[in-house]
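Predict structure. Chain length: 310.
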Amino acid sequence: MLQLPKPTTSQKVLVSLSESYELCRQITSKFSKTFYLGTLLMPPRKRRAIWAIYVWCRRTDELVDGPQSALTNSETLDLWQEYLEGIFAGVAGADYDLALVDTLESFTIDIQPFRDMIAGVRMDLCRNRYETFDDLYLYCYRVAGTVGLMTSPILGLDLSEQSYVAPWETPYPGPQNEAVALGIANQLVNILRDVGEDAQRGRIYIPLEDIRRFGYSEEELLAGVIDERWCNLMRFEIARARAYYQKASKGIKYLTRDARWPVWASLLLYQGILDVIEANQYDVFSKRAYVPGTNKFFYLPAAWLKAQAM
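Prediction complete.
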């Protein structure tokens, strides 16, 4: 379990910077093996920064999904945001934070996506249903689309791509929309993979209007009913997630060359979970969909080829 310290205005005596980054590496490799594999394809400086951000995001998520989530309330999140402001001011209150403070000093990263993620976690305190996809989109942006905005400054932009812009055209501002799309796609995969686990918590993230569209019901979802209606609903949701991956892929060519392969690898690996859901006949109630460790390496050559073709 990750410790969630209370805000502090004083700098604590912590582990060394290298030890802090190592702690972040360990947490990332333990809790997100697919994501971690993608980071290993990055230059050391970038991968360490990504690990630092991942750990902050995970600690934030654990406020509502971790072992002590029952103790989380609005005041807890107010304190966590105050703690975030301290980190951006250079105050590290825990061993993990030292790496994040160093990352913020090394890269120009905006605080707003971090604030938005806390706002997304706050939604979990008061909502366990979403009527439309537009409603769900806001949640997905806050808890996952923000990650793309947090990490984009680390991945870097290849400004040479600007040479292809005609003089009368507006220069491409960078793949912010595509970065958000990748986060949205990943969150949709999380939602589809975790339907069963979320149902046990009384949560349904699939839009209710989609459920009704296929003649299915909330009660049947909570009971884990798998029939043709459920399969059709899942096919529809999977197609939506893949469409967001398609949108996200169009922005990868604007990243620096050392970032393209790892981003492609992460995209293909995470998208592969959708293939597993299909192979499991859409049973996300009794089977957890994941890409087996040995199979993950099969995605790397395809990701490398896509990165070179850009």
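Summary: The radius of gyration is 20 Å.
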